[in-house]
From TrEMBL:
The chain crosses the membrane at residues 20-36, 56-77, 89-107, 146-168, 180-198, 308-326, 332-355, 376-392, 398-417. It is a multi-pass membrane protein. The keyword Transmembrane helix applies. It comes from Nocardia xishanensis. Keywords: Cell membrane, Membrane, Transmembrane, Transmembrane helix, Transport. Residues 1-420 form the Major facilitator superfamily (MFS) profile domain. SUPFAM superfamilies: MFS general substrate transporter. This is MFS transporter. PROSITE patterns: MFS, SUGAR_TRANSPORT_1. CDD domains: MFS_MdtG_SLC18_like (cd17325). It is found in: Cell membrane.
Length: 433
């Protein structure tokens, strides 16, 4: 069966009506997350013990390379998925993943690691953005929060599980090659599933567009279907209060993730913890994050988006302060659990905000632009964390992130409006999911 063959069943909106495809896309996104998890525990330790790197800024170059590349790939994922369809973009993203684990296994120097993370950034931008858009396409307007909660829970739950598995494999069999064989298996399986069983969902967005009605309060009157790419970029980045606030909060959220990716294993190693315990500490953050989204995504469909996001950002700031004040396993465990809980409140809810506000015709591009800003946070976090850690120490870098996160919480509270509006059943009679 050809990988490029796309089945086009008659579209119908709803989570229950599209349960099989939705579940398949959840599984595919778990494999996307697994590609990141296989290396997060191992690469900072590999940098020090195999390549002899000691400067934090230099070590974090692979996180910055990943973040910048992923941000750029997000933009093209959104543009191409609106223009050519979702499935071809998903397939292209998985093709970029195949060389990554092989490069990490064979890397003779740190440049190979950075190059592998460039390819990984492309893979993550194309595949994760596309699965997000496809799920929003399938469920229609009334279950966006739940859909995003399930999507992100699968992705970041897989990050946590793969981090644990990679840490175990590294402790038992060495830093290479065993942990990276996970990624090779993930990429091969995902390419098979995406090419053979995933269906195109762009027609679902077109169906929703025919039923689209503006808000009664007139807030979205300027966000009509025929906006140009330049106008969509401006609205999502700066002008539209909810879209821009979501983009800014997303950047800070991933600033924290990027900083944790490069800095937390090194911080935890200062207490002479084993690789396995470091892996456990690192897995707590995405583990709570992933599991929590099973609750927070659907919760935002009931209580709204804005306050959940503001409280979540404030919780992250508090968690970072706890981590900065701690010097051992117990304090760090409390901080990483709290950080995961705050992130779970924010992550699926920000994506639901984009789905609430963006017109179905240009939703893919809006999601892509939001994810550009969000994933630039990886690079900003890596650079901020590396520079502050080199100048003032590891704990000071965590304090800097806490201050930035508190400011982001305040911005959301002041500028964002509530975007979730109840959708009456008669308008979307098929959206029973």
């Amino acid at each position: 069966m050809s990988l490029l063959r796309t089945s086009r069943p008659t579209p119908v909106l709803g989570l229950r009506e599209n349960a099989a495809q939705f579940s398949l896309l959840v599984a595919v996104n778990a494999l996307v997350g697994g590609m990141v998890g296989q290396q997060q525990t191992v690469l900072p330790l590999l940098a020090e013990s195999v390549f002899g790197l000691t400067g934090y800024t230099f070590i974090f170059t692979y996180v910055a390379a990943f973040g910048i590349t992923k941000a750029i790939a997000n933009y093209f994922a959104g543009t191409f998925s609106d223009r050519y369809g979702r499935k071809p973009v998903l397939l292209a993203g998985w093709l970029f993943a195949l060389p990554v684990p092989l490069m990490l296994i064979a890397a003779p120097n740190w440049g190979w690691v950075v190059a592998a993370n460039v390819l990984l950034g492309i893979n993550q931008g194309l595949t994760w953005s596309t699965t997000v858009v496809m799920k929003i396409d399938l469920v229609g307007p009334s279950r966006r929060g739940l859909a995003m909660g399930l999507n992100e829970a699968a992705g970041y739950g897989a990050v946590a599980i793969s981090s644990l598995l990679a840490g175990y494999l590294a402790e038992q069999y060495g830093l290479r090659p065993a942990p990276f064989l996970l990624g090779l298996a993930y990429a091969a399986l995902a390419l098979l599933l995406s090419g053979t069983f995933v269906h195109e969902t762009r027609d679902h967005a077109h169906l929703e567009a025919t039923r689209h009605t503006p808000r009664a309060d007139g807030l979205h009157d300027h966000l009509h279907a025929d906006l140009t790419d330049r106008h969509i970029l401006a609205q999502t980045s700066l002008k539209e209060p909810a879209l821009a606030s979501a983009s800014h909060a997303g950047l800070v959220n991933n600033l924290n993730f990027g900083l944790s990716w490069g800095l937390f294993p090194l911080l935890f190693a200062t207490a002479d913890l084993t690789v396995g315990r470091i892996g456990l500490l690192f897995a707590l953050y995405p583990g709570v994050w992933g599991a929590g989204q099973l609750i927070t995504g659907g919760l935002s469909d009931r209580i709204g988006r804005k306050h959940l996001i503001a409280v979540g950002m404030a919780t992250q700031a508090t968690a970072l302060a706890v981590i900065a004040l701690s010097h051992g396993f117990t304090g760090w465990a409390v901080g990483t659990v709290l950080l995961g809980a705050g992130t779970a409140m924010v992550y699926p809810t920000l994506l639901a905000v984009i789905g609430d506000v963006a017109h179905p015709v240009w939703r893919g591009r809006a999601v892509g632009i939001y994810r550009v800003w969000r994933d630039l946070g990886y690079a900003v976090g890596a650079v901020l964390g590396g520079v502050v850690a080199d100048l003032m120490g590891l704990h000071a870098a965590v304090w800097a992130a806490a201050a930035v996160t508190a400011a982001a919480a305040l911005l959301v509270a002041v500028r964002m409006y509530e975007t979730h509006q109840p959708h009456p059943v008669p308008q979307f009679a098929t959206d029973a999911g």
